[in-house]
Amino acid sequence: MVVLALASAMAITGCGGSSSSVSTTPAPAVPALVQHVSGSSTRNNSFSNPFCYFYQLPGPTTAGNSVVVGFTFLNSPTPTVTDDKNDSYTIEVNHFDNVDGVSVAIAAAFGVAAGARVISVCFNSDPGGFVQPMATEFDNVTGVDGPGTGNQGNGMSVTAGSLTPSVSGDLVYQVVASLAASRSQSSFTAGSQANITWNLLSADLMDGLAGQYGIYNSTSAINPTMGMGTTQDWASAAILLKTGSSGGVPAGMRIIHLVHENIPEHVASGGTGNPFPNPLPLQFPSSGNLLVAMIGGGNNSETVTSMTDTSNNTWTQAGATQVIAGNDTAQSYYAGNAVSASNLHLTLNWSGGDGDFTIFFYDVIGAAASPLDTAVGNTGTQAVAGNLAMPFTITPAVADEIIFAQVIWDFNTANGLLELDFDTNTFSGESQSGPEPVDENNGWGHVITTTTATVQFTWTPEFPGLAVGNWAGNAVAFKAAN
Q1: Confidence class of residue 27 from pLDDT cuts 50, 70 and 90?
Q2: Peptide bond just before 28 cis, omega within 30 deg
Q3: Euclidean distance between CA atoms 101 and 137, whole angstroms
Q4: How far apart are alpha carbons 241 and 174 in whole angstroms?
Q5: pLDDT for 17 beyond 90
Q6: Does residue 9 surpass a pLDDT of 60?
Q7: What angle do CA 108, 283, 190 make, to 5 degrees?
Q8: What are the Cα distances from residue 430, in Å, to 155, 261, 276, 366?
Q9: Which end of the chain is more exposed for a tag (fewer CB within 10 A), N or C?
Q10: Mean local confidence (pLDDT), 87-109
């Protein structure tokens, strides 16, 4: 008789009595980046009760995944992190730089619920300004491996401090804050160390905040390191994360990176009172095949006249520039069939540097090689308070398109986009109508369609008794692969 037994090991015994066995060990689970977001700094703006910064992941979380939140703030109030699905976040490291009066912290939640999107970073007292968060979702991350570390210093090489993993294959996560008076930095460079390939998550040159991650294939101590282009004081924190089978990566087209960039001139918006640089250098770590820039602002209606990048992608304006009253401006650029890169650098040429602008950079994976479907826009004036319905719609040519929308207005603060995913960040105590360094009180959002039904755009303001006045808005639709 021949008996076959199949389990984690398989043994085959022949009639002659000899036997052999083959051990099958599952391949180790390797974490994948699901999505990442980086918000703008509050700069010098103080908070009011409940002392919170509210921001959104690009898309809803996948059940069983992990979310890592890095953030900076002034002084040393006690922080807490929550989301809209009541996942449990633990502050894994909170380093206070007593020289510069800045804290850098990292929190994490494991095995999160499906559908979490809104993250709140709150404090037990006013953090005093310069609050800036990021958040990253990974699959196959199951817990923290030992205590985190923090460090501070001056120079072009940023080190977080020594970490020693208990096993090989940990994910290392590092947050870096450049602490110039203006908070700006000329560049960030991913680390170059043995047994790990670092990947930049975001690199905000205007606000001086960057993050990186990598899988460390060793049990030797590692001191996570990132490079900066200009010598500055800096503060950094890092943690080790255990890997294992957990969660998953959603299928289809999705946003993998979203970076909020504040491009200010005026002091109230976080600027110096002088025009912003023109041409304007920025960084956009990315890994998708469609890059989109939704550009809006005012207080002088400057426009982007062209864009280039270090991968030689072709950036094209989608639709017409929308301008009203020489102030509110909305326009969009995109690079289709893009060659993205962790170290992608951008150059934006403007009509001038006078004004306060915000750019939402979206990095999309799974887009068509020729992605643009259609672009629409308009301007107007709202004299009676209430929701603001755009006088244009988009009917997708095919299902499964991604549509980006924005509105720039004179007064009020955006707090929603009906039936679409709202992307604008806010914080408690911000000015009712701006100007502000965090998304300028304006509205941004997106939706991934499932049908060819017509999409409408209706913005909801935070203060229902205040008309928004003049506004400029637009929307752009892109097609998915296949």
Answers
A1: low
A2: no
A3: 29
A4: 11
A5: no
A6: no
A7: 60
A8: 34, 18, 23, 36
A9: N
A10: 97
Look-up of token digits 């083959």: 22
CB 255 within 8 A of CB 446: yes
Q: Read off the pTM.
A: 0.94
| Torsion 320-326-330-331 (CA) sign | positive
Closest C-alpha to 178, from 146, 210, 140: 210
Instruction: Output the average pLDDT for the chain.
Output: 93
Q: Are 334 and 285 in contact (CB under 8 A)?
A: no
CA distance 471 to 478: 24
Residue listed under structure tokens 């701006």? 434
Segment 118-149, tens digit of pLDDT? 999 999 999 988 999 999 999 999 999 999 99
User: Cα separations (Å) of 15 from 4, 6, 11, 12, 273?
Assistant: 12, 18, 13, 10, 88
pLDDT above 60 (res 16): no
Q: What are phi and psi of 23, to 5 degrees?
A: -90, 125
Q: Which two tokens stand for residue 247?
A: 């969660």
Q: What pLDDT is stored for residue 182 in this prediction?
A: 85
How far apart CA 205 and CA 183 sit, in angstroms, is: 8
Q: What is the pLDDT of residue 26?
A: 57
What is the C-alpha to C-alpha distance for residues 197 and 216, in angstroms, rounded to an integer?
8
Rounded Cα distance between 285 and 306, Å, is 20
In whole angstroms, give the CA distance from residue 302 to residue 160.
39
Q: Both tokens of residue 204? A: 């905000």
Which structure tokens are listed for 267?
């002091």
Q: Is residue 451 classed as helix, strand or coil in its secondary structure?
A: coil
Q: Which CA distances in Å does 427 have to 75, 260, 271?
A: 18, 14, 18
Backbone angle region of 112, left / alpha / beta, with phi > 0 → left and psi within -120 to 50 → alpha: beta
Place of tokens 């808005």: 473
Burial readout 160-169 (b: 16 or more C-beta within 10 A, e: otherwise) = bbebebeeeb
H helix or E strand, kind and range, residue 78: none
**What 3-state DSSP class applies to 23?**
strand
Q: How far is 253 from 251, CA to CA, in rounded Å? A: 7
